[in-house]
Amino acid sequence: MLSPFTFFLFRKKRIVILPLETEKMNKPTRNQDALNYHSKGRPGKIQVVPTKPTNSQRDLSMAYSPGVAEPCLRIADNIDDVYKYTAKGNLVGVITNGTAVLGLGNIGPEASKPVMEGKGLLFKIYADIDVFDLEVNAKTVDEFVNIVKSLEPTFGGINLEDISAPTCFEIERRLKAEMKIPVMHDDQHGTAIISGAALLNACEIQGKKLDKIKMVVNGAGAAAVSCSKMYLALGVKKENLVMFDINGLITPDRTDLDEIRLAFATTRTDAKTLTEAMKNADVFIGLSAGNVVTADMLKVMAKNPVVFAMANPDPEISYELATATSKDIIMATGRSDFPNQVNNVLGFPYIFRGALDVRATAINEAMKIAAVKAIAEMAKKPIPEAVNLAYNTTNLKFGRDYIIPKPMDPRLITEVSSAVAHAAIESGVARKVITDWDAYTEELRLRIGIDDKLLRNLTYKARQNPKRIVFAEADTYKILRAAQIVKEEGIATPILLGNVKRIKQIMRDYEIDLGDVKIIDSKEHCDHIDEYSDYLYRNRQRRGITLSESRKLLSDRNYYGACMVQFGEADALISGLTKDYATTIRPALQIIGTIPGVRRVAGMYMMITKKGPVFFGDTTVNVNPSTQDLVDITVLIEHSVRQFNVNPRVAILSYSNFGSNDGPIPEKTREAVSILHERYPDMVVDGDMQANFALNADLLADNFPFSTLKGKPANTLIFPNLESGNIAYKLLQEMGGAEAVGPILLGLKKPVHVLQLGSSVREIVNMITIAVVDAQEKEKENV
Questions:
Q1: Catalytic annotation on 373?
Q2: Contact 230, 266 (CB under 8 A)
Q3: Which end of the chain, C or N, has fewer beta carbons within 10 A?
Q4: pLDDT tens per residue across span 285-328
Q5: Closest listed residue to residue 770, CA positions, set 531, 364, 461, 429
Q6: 64 an active-site residue?
Q7: Which band of pLDDT confidence, cut at 50, 70 and 90, is reported for residue 733?
Q8: Is the bond leading into 751 cis (omega within 30 degrees of zero)?
Q9: In contact, 771 and 575? CB cutoff 8 Å
C-alpha cells in the first residue's frame, strides 16, 4: 500500500524509504492502491520543472533562441563552463537495463522505470540532486558501456542500478575507467558503505578488533562481494573471512564461480556448512535469503556476537528470535521496524552530493571510506532533538540499538557530503576546491529546507507511539480507506462509529480489510451509555439539558465520540468530513472543554510550501477576534508550532505596516503585539504588518530594520479575522500549490480534530497523524 507520505522500494539486500511511505509494511498489501499512486493525475513520480522565469517573450528569447547562443559559445571555448551555464553539475543519470529489479529479477527496462523514478525521487528529496532516469535495451557489457559512455556530456554523475551479476562488476569497472565523471553501482557499494559504518561501531561496542574477528558471509551476489571488499579495506583479514553462496562454501576447487567470487575462496577452514562455520564466529553477514540462520547457530557464535541479517523482506534470522537467543548480540537488519536498519538512503544521496559539488572525476575508495567513517562518527555524536522527536524518544544514543544514524537525521547531508568532498579533494579527483567549508555546510543545509520533511518527521513520530483514533463518520469510503492506511502503517488504531451493516458493506465493496477493528453504532445500546449520559447531564444541566435529552444527544456520533475521548476509551476524535465545522466542534466543547486558562479555541492550518512549512491561524473558528482574542490565539498557535519542533516567528497581519494606516484592524493588531511584547518577551512576534513584508526578509530589513522579525521571514501568520485567514489559505492551496494540513484544532483539553468538508483520503491521513502526535504531547504534559 502506498500511503500519502512514503512507500517502500525493495532493494535486493535492503529497504530504502521513499518519502511518500510505510514503515512496518514490507510490500504493498493493496495492489490497486500502488497502481493508483503511480497512475492518477500526472503519471509517474517525477517531472522537469523550469528554474528560470518563462513568463514573457524576453524570458523565452533568453531561454532559447537567440539568447541561448551566448552560453553555447562560452562552453565551446571552455568546456568546463558547461557546469556554469547548465544543470550538468547537479544532474545524475540513474541507469539500468532491468536485469535485476527489486528482487523481481529480469523483468526488462520498461518494467524497471517505476523503480528508477523512485530512486530519482530519493536523490531529490534527500540531497536536492536532479535525476534523469534511463532504462536501456542493452544486455551485453559492450552495449551497456557504449550507451552510457556516450551520455557523459549530459550528466555530472552516473548511478547504476538493478543490473545483474556478474555483468554489473565489469560494467562498473569499465565505466569508471573510461569516464571522467563519478560512477557508482549502488547495489554493490551502498550496502557496503552503510554496513561498513555499522560494523565499525558494532565491533567497538562489543570490544572486538577488526583484524582479529572471524567473519561468516552468507551470500555471494554483487552486494555481498562489495561488502566483503569494504570490510577487508576497513581491516578485516582475508584469512578470517569465509563466504557461502547457494551452493555452499566458496573454495578454490569450485568450477561454477567467476573470478570475482573466487577471490573470496578459502582453504583455511574445516567447516563445510554454514552451521559449522558459525562456531566461534564473531560476525555474521547475511545477504542471502530469509530464515536460513537458526537459534542454535547463534548459540555457538563467539561471545558478544555481531549479526547483520540484511535479507529482505525476511532477514536470515528474525530480530525477535536473535535478540531472545543472545542477550549480548548486536543485531542489524534491512528493515525499518527494528533498530539498526542498514538503509542505503544513508549514503548514496550524500555521496553523490559531495562528489558533484567538487566536480569529482570518480567516486574512489577514499571517498567511500570517508563516507563510512562519517556515518559511523555521526552515530556517536549527541542526537539532535529533531531526531528524538521524529522517533518519539528522549534517550536515543550510541549503543547496541543505535550503531548507525536514522534516515531522518538532518545532519547526514552536511556530515557525509562534506566528508566525501574532502576526500575527493585530498585524493586528487576533484576539479573544484572548496575553501570555505562553513559556507558549504550552510549551502547543504539550505538544500534540504524546502520540502515536506516536517510531515515525514511527524509520521515517524506518530508510529513510535500509535494512538486509538475514533472516527465519527466511519460509514464513508474515505474514512474507511484512511483508517486502513493508518492501521497498516502503524500510525493509529481505528475505532469506527456508524451503522455497522453499512460500514461492513463498504468494506466488502472496496476490499478494505481492517481486521478486528472495533465498530460501534451509537444509536444502538452501547457500552458506557449510562456513564456518558450522566456526565453530559451533570455538565449541561444548567444549560437546559435534561437527563433524557443527554441520552438522546449521545446517539449523535460526535457526542458519543467526544465522550469516548473524555473517558479514555479513545485517545482522539476525528470528524467533520460530511458536517459543518460548528456542528462538529460543539460536542467537544461541551464534553471535553478547553485547557485551563484558555478562553477560546482556535483553528490552525499547516501550509506545506516549497520554502518550508508556514502556519496560518485562526482560519476556522473566531469570526472577528478582539485584541485579547488575538493575544490568546497567538499564544495558542505559538505553543503548538513549537510542538512541531519549529521555532515560531510570528507576524500579526493587517493591511498596514507599523502604523502606516489607521482603522479597527491595524489598531487591534498593534495593540495585540504590544501586549504580547510585554507579557511574552521571549516570543518572536511583530506587527501590524502586511503579508509580503512578513514573508520577505529582505523587503522587511530594507524598509523596517527595527522589526523583531528582521533577518528571517515569518513562519507563523496570525490573521486579524476569520475572513482573511480562510481566504488566504484557500488561495494558497489552490493557486500556490501548497498542501494544507488541517484544520488543527487548538485549546481543547484532549485531542479532537475537525476535517475540512470533503477532505481527500490523503488529507484525512495527514490529520490522523496530527491527532496522534497531539495525543502523544497531551499524554506527556499530563504525566
A1: no
A2: no
A3: C
A4: 999 989 999 999 999 999 999 999 998 878 999 999 999 999 99
A5: 461
A6: yes
A7: confident
A8: no
A9: no
